[in-house]
């Protein structure tokens, strides 16, 4: 068994207490600053950084590294993501650290001689790995806007990995399943084991020495600690030995990009979200514009009219997403202005029949549902800065492969490219040009980190995992707060649906939509399919009258929670 010394046991006990306290609370309040993430330990790491004088960017960097340690199914240094950052002066910017296709990638790289996808290779095995962007993105954001020294922000995660933290029931569940995997996929099989070779049990301390080594390189050398030197060499060695194509050159060439945010409005609120290569901001703003046309607040929440209208808006936005969107560096003519305009929403709204479902034409566009993990966190600080950050490995534990010398898992984000050029099917596989594979291209994302502002100040900071469902989850939560006046926790928990053009069906949360409503929707021509849960939202709202932040983490997050001060 692992030797748990008393200092570690005390640390573990505190963390366990934090976990229990947070999981009984629907809302958390704070005056100065707050972090809401998928793991309370990581939220506390972010708050501690702010208490030491760090700003929201500093807290985001520290929280993101901590999630790599405590929430490794999605918290990552082996993947990528997006930050939307609203500064206290009302200015908004974004950072794009989406993974890129390696230099040796090509549009047909996943196909066999018959033009069919070979062995699910866009999702499984090292060909599915995109060049990771997380460390570069966090470093760039910190270089430009951080206050505390970089090393101070990475240090807590080095310590967490080295000294360990208390295994939770949520992690243990996964750990047992992973430990039974095929021995060939050794890193996952051994990931959650202690020095004695046994899977670490709830209440015991889980240490990750190899990850501590990698994080230490990043603490000492910043961006170069990952993209150059020992770590880069070990990544290349691992790739070469296991059929991957990512090289040191790919790593060295990777750059994060600061981009202008997309801006929309809804009934006097400003919406700031992520531009391409995420499709999230475009689709969110397009749908909010449609809702403004419809005067959504006069449509009762969860009624037949609500589900129909919202689903029709989703259908249209997802068709446009598939037709037009991809990496902006490769698609210079995306009609963003048109898609985001109120006039366009008007024409889109006019062809919604409030009594009848439209039809998604399979000869046109759509996109398959997403995989099962990504993570979002929201942060506000005492200066009035706000951060909305979503990052991912694509599936839960990404490609489930990585070097045991480095202790982190690689993404399988290449699966977000359109895999078969020219082939679009009714089941939702897309083959349109804007999102085909090309060397150094970023794959289209659905991540939708978003900040809603009122009078130039953050009002709602929100985001979620969930693949393509992310866009619709964020959309409905924003509507719940802005149009239906729901408290943040209720907006997060309220019934969600998902429609993504193709397949032509409404996914709804089981037990939250009445049979009568479902009947009425089916009579209008909709196909309905139940699912257990949509979204794992992490949100913060600000009340200008009390000057208080309110944070809430989705009840579907096992170890998540809000922390403030
Ligand atoms: O970038 C994207 O849209 C996807 N790779 C995200 C995957 C995801 O959210 C899976 N999680 N729940």
What does this structure look like?
The protein has 565 residues and is of the alpha+beta class. The protein has a domain at 259-374 and 445-544: Serum Albumin, Chain A, Domain 1 (Orthogonal Bundle). Helices cover 36% and strands 16% of the residues. It has 18 helices and 19 strands. The chain has a 7-stranded antiparallel beta sheet. It has a 7-stranded antiparallel beta sheet with strand order 7-4-3-11-10-2-19. Strands 14-15-16 form a 3-stranded mixed beta sheet. A hairpin with a 5-residue loop joins strand 3 and strand 4 (92-97). Helix 3 (56-70) runs parallel beside helix 5, helix 5 (150-163) runs antiparallel to helix 8 (209-221) and helix 12 (280-294) packs across helix 16 (469-482). The longest helix has 21 residues, at 304-324. It is globular. Mean pLDDT is 93; it is low at 1-24 and 364-371. Bound molecules: 6-diazenyl-5-OXO-L-norleucine (DON). 6-diazenyl-5-OXO-L-norleucine binds at residues 370-374, 392, 394, 413, 416, 445-447, 465-467, 470.
How do the helices and strands line up, and which of them pair or pack?
Elements: H1 6-23, E1 28-30, E2 34-37, H2 40-51, H3 56-70, E3 80-86, E4 92-97, H4 134-145, H5 150-163, E5 165-166, H6 169-179, H7 186-191, E6 205-206, H8 209-221, H9 224-227, H10 229-241, H11 248-253, E7 257-259, E8 262-266, E9 269-273, H12 280-294, H13 304-324, H14 336-340, H15 342-350, E10 374-380, E11 386-392, E12 450-454, E13 457-462, H16 469-482, H17 488-493, E14 497-498, E15 506-509, H18 515-523, E16 528-531, E17 538-543, E18 548-553, E19 561-564
Parallel strand pairs: 15-16
Antiparallel strand pairs: 1-18, 2-10, 2-19, 3-4, 3-11, 4-7, 5-6, 8-9, 9-12, 10-11, 12-13, 13-17, 14-15, 17-18
Helix pairs in contact: 2-3, 3-4, 3-5, 5-8, 12-13, 12-15, 12-16
The structure holds 6-diazenyl-5-OXO-L-norleucine.
